[in-house]
Structure formats: C-alpha cells, structure tokens
Amino acid sequence: MKTTCYVQVIITLNTANPFLGSMKRSMASRSREVILSLYSTLMRPQLEYCVQLWSLQHKQDMDVLERVQRKAMKMVRGLKHLSYEDRLRDLGLFSLEKRRHQGDLLAAFQYLKRAYRKDDFTRMCSHRTRGNGCKLKEGRFRLAIRKKFFTMRVVKHWNKLPREAVDAASLEVFKARLDGALSNLF
Fold this sequence. Notes:
With 186 residues, the chain is mainly alpha-helical. The chain folds into two domains: 4-92, no CATH class; 100-185, no CATH class. The chain has helices spanning 4-26, 32-48, 51-54, 59-74, 84-91, 96-112, 150-160, 163-166, 171-185; strands at 123-125, 134-136. A two-stranded antiparallel ribbon has the order 1-2. Strand 1 and strand 2 (134-136) form a beta hairpin. Helix 1 packs antiparallel against helix 2, helix 2 packs antiparallel against helix 4 (59-74) and helix 6 (96-112) packs antiparallel against helix 9. The longest helix has 23 residues, at 4-26. The two termini are 33 Å apart. The mean pLDDT is 78.
C-alpha cells in the first residue's frame, strides 16, 4: 500500500524533474547567478510545496528529493568537483532537510508567539536551563505515528536552539538568528 507521503514524493518528482531537464537543455550559461535564480524560482518551490503538512517520514523519500537538488547544484560551473555539502556551503544554501527543519521552526515560533490561536505545545520555561530558556516538552504516546506530527517532530530541534534565537522579538529577527543556528546545529 502506498502512503500519502510516497504519492506526494512521486508527484513532486514529476513536477521538479522536467524543470531540471529544461534548465539543462536550454541554459547556455552555467554561472552561479543564473542557475541559483532559476533553481530558487522554479525548482525549489516544487520540492518544498506543503512539506510541513505531508512531512517526509522515510529516509529514502528524503534522499530522492535531495537527489534532485544535488543534480541542480552540479550544474553550476566550477563546483562539480566539490562534495554536495561543500557546494551548498559555497552557494549559501541549505539541504532540503535543513530547509524542512527551518520551516518547522518558523511555524513553531509563530505558534509560540501567538500568531495562531491554538496552543499545541507544552512549554517548560525556566531561566536556569542550558541553551534556550523556553524548552518544549516531548509528549509520550503509545502510537508511533504520533511522533511524526508537527508538534512532536519540532520539539527536539526547538530545544537545541540558542537562547538568543528563541527570545527574538519578531519573525524577521528569528529568521536571521535561525539561519546562523541551523548552519551550526545540524
């Protein structure tokens, strides 16, 4: 039986791969600026569409989508000899997995700052803890499927964030601090 997540991965691949193929065939320039702008506007939105909702649960699904980004980054002139991680670092990009974590943490920040009405997180705020002072409590559940829910998968990553990121006053400040924290954490 095929899961919803698997079907979504296939749909995503069927929309992103044609963009990659047309980029390879039609672009004479393989400069960093051209490839990055095309990738950012045409391909990455396809790879990240609703990813917080259908949350990838299997490593093989994550790897399949990551492979598309890997191929796109190899197209940049002068970076083919580098490893994938070095290419991303040189281009100032994150892997798709880090981008998923980033999206989860941005949504969690908005929930915790009451941008949304529901309060789905259990907080343990203290100024005596290491790291950030507003840790989230992990729930205990009998069903393994519950561990994949947004409110559970974001807890581990939120609790690793530094205090200055968690205590940000606005979403823009949080985004800037989160980028620095993500490059150091994962």
